[in-house]
Design goal:
Blueprint lengths: L8 E4 L4 H14 L4 E5 L6 H5 L3 E3 L5 H10 L4 E4 L5 H6 L1 H22 L3 E3 L2 E2 L23 H20 L3 E2 L1 E3 L1 E3 L12 H11 L2 E4 L7 E5 H13 L11 E2 L3 E3 L1 H9 L6 E4 L4 H6 L8 H7 L7 H17 L4
Parallel strand pairs: 1-2, 1-4, 2-3, 4-5, 5-7, 6-8, 8-12, 9-11, 10-14
Antiparallel strand pairs: 11-13
Helix pairs in contact: 1-8, 3-5, 5-6, 7-9, 7-12
Bound molecules: 2-amino-3-ketobutyric acid.
2-amino-3-ketobutyric acid (AKB) binds next to loops.
Length: 325
């Protein structure tokens, strides 16, 4: 039987916070030519363009997506393009269209073209205040209060449906806030935990849009990439959850993060001016129970608050010194 020897991967949302780093890691693993990066409006960084193919597509348009899938003979999709929680509240209709329209297109194309695997990130935003906020379990009530959360719950159900009905091997994790040093996030409620590092290094001051005591689940980028790749590499027999897996790493408040940053930058000062994002944060879990992901496919994060903070500051200080921040 004919078998393709190499995976042909498409990453949508490749210019975004997760996409820009995940694409490079996948290219490292599978070869630059075999990982096609797709973005929409944002200009791709130099490394993204020089390390493999890059295409501009609008993932809400099925024909644009399908053209790339056919042209490159794609068998695996990491579908990351999405609007996040805070921008989603500014334009809920667009958030629904982008998040649900694009996921529906990806799943339909996976069904029609028999794609091998699809990765789609869900989020802790699927939970609302009715769910336990401490050690939020894998299976609990999902009544999100944001449109972003609504699209993530609906998306999880759609993924599960496509698996059960059509056998599409779609896999997902519920990411917490992601902290990264390469590409800043855009439009999320957890974005403060990235902005704070840039401002601490550049200005030694930051005004936080959440209250000092707002504890949220977070994860450092190397663990975020590890979660996606380990889940996609796992044997299908180990994937028992086809909605989305809880994955946890670190939970902290802005005050705890400030105290950790001060160990490296003692003169750093943080003020607090909560805005509309506080309400979103207050509806989300504080800590996550990820025992199912640990049991099923061996999830095990590496970074804690201290090691993440040290690494972020080291990387950003270097870029600042080189005039690249
Ligand atoms: C957001 O804040 O919207 C995202 C998320 C937790 O999914 N970072």
């Amino acid at each position: 039987m004919y078998r393709k020897s190499t995976k042909k991967i498409l990453v949508t949302g490749a210019t975004g916070q997760i996409g820009s780093e995940l694409t490079l890691e996948l290219r490292h693993k599978y070869g630059g030519e075999n990982v096609i990066a797709a973005g929409h409006r944002r200009k791709p960084g130099e490394r993204l363009v020089s390390s493999g193919p890059f295409e501009f597509i609008d993932v809400t348009k099925k024909d644009e997506l399908e053209k790339i899938v056919k042209e490159y003979d794609i068998d695996t999709v990491y579908h990351l393009a999405a609007m996040l929680s805070a921008t989603g509240e500014e334009n809920p209709q667009q958030a629904w269209n982008v998040n649900m329209g694009s996921l529906y297109n990806v799943l339909e194309i996976a069904r029609e073209h028999g794609l091998t695997r699809v990765f789609w990130p869900s989020s802790i935003a699927v939970f609302g205040p009715e769910a336990p906020r401490v050690k939020t379990p894998q299976n609990t009530v999902l009544i999100p209060k944001t449109m972003y959360g609504v699209t993530k719950v609906a998306g999880e159900l759609l993924c599960n449906y496509y698996f059960l009905r059509y056998g599409v091997d779609v896999r997902s994790v519920r990411y917490p806030g992601i902290i990264s040093s390469e590409t800043p996030p855009g439009g999320g409620t957890t974005d403060y935990a990235v902005e704070i590092f840039y401002e601490a290094i550049k200005k030694k001051r930051y005004t936080c849009f959440l209250r000092a005591d707002t504890v949220l689940p977070m994860m450092y980028m190397p663990d975020c990439i590890k979660a996606a790749i380990n889940l996609m590499d796992a044997d299908a027999s180990r994937i028992k959850c086809r909605t989305s897996y809880n994955v946890a790493a670190i939970s902290f408040s802005p005050a705890e993060l400030v105290a950790e940053i001060k160990k490296h930058i003692p003169e750093f000062v943080c003020e607090y001016k909560p805005d509309f994002r506080q309400k979103i944060a207050d509806s989300w879990p504080m800590t996550i129970d990820d025992c199912v992901a640990r049991e099923d496919w061996g999830w095990n994060p590496e970074y804690d608050l201290a090691s993440m903070t040290r690494d972020m500051i080291e990387k950003l200080k270097k870029r600042f010194a080189e005039g690249r921040l």
